[in-house]
Amino acid sequence: MNKKRLPEKYRLHHIGIVVKDVHTALRTYLDHFERTDITYKFEFVPSQKVEICMISTLDQTTVEFIEPAGEDSPVFEFSRDGGGLHHLCYETEDIESAIKELDMKIIEKPVIGFESRKIAFVFEKTGDMGVSLIELAQTKNN
Fold it and tell me: Could you tell me which residue ranges the VOC domain spans (predicted)?
């Protein structure tokens, strides 16, 4: 068993879920959970060719609904196949160091993503976590 652990300096930021339509997904989410502490915002992320909806609660749980903006979006095929859990996003102060430290296969070099943050997607090689795609997001202050 691999004993390598994610250092404490990485904080789970959100869970990314691919959907066919972010507006429909949000309505369904709000209908089911009826929480009053939810905030949400929509954003188009050009580097990923996706429309997203970030949903946050006061307890700092965040879910990202992701809708492909066209057939050239990296998540188009996944959406067409029904979508679902896509990635876990961890926040870090130094994305370049994190990529080296985690020793995971980088899918793409860092680009500007949600909230104008520097992001990168890496692939967790073992598949033991049930989700292999990890998004790294640099903290807003860096």
Answer: 11-139
Q: Is 33 helix (H, G, I), strand (E, B) or coil?
A: helix
C-alpha dihedral (88, 16, 110, 141), degrees to nearest 10: -80
Q: Give the domains, in start order, of the chain with CATH numbers.
A: 11-138 (3.10.180.10)
Q: How far is Cα 18 from Cα 26, in angstroms, rounded to an integer?
A: 12
State the amino acid at position 66 in one-letter form. I
Collapsed DSSP state (helix, strand, coil) of residue 23:
helix
Structural contact between residues 66 and 26, judged by C-beta atoms closer than 8 angstroms: no
Q: Alpha-carbon distance 95 to 55, whole Å?
A: 23
Each as own residue / partner, the long-range contacts of residues 117-120 (CB below 8 Å, 24 or more positions apart, any chain) are 119/47, 119/89, 119/95, 120/95
Q: Give me the phi and psi of 102, to 5 degrees please.
A: -75, -15
Instruction: Give me the residue label for tokens 């050239």.
Output: 72
pLDDT in tens, 71-123: 999 999 999 999 999 999 999 999 998 888 887 888 888 999 999 999 999 98
Q: Across-strand partners of 12? A: 90
Dihedral angle at the C-alpha atoms of 30, 32, 33, 35, nearest 10 degrees? 50
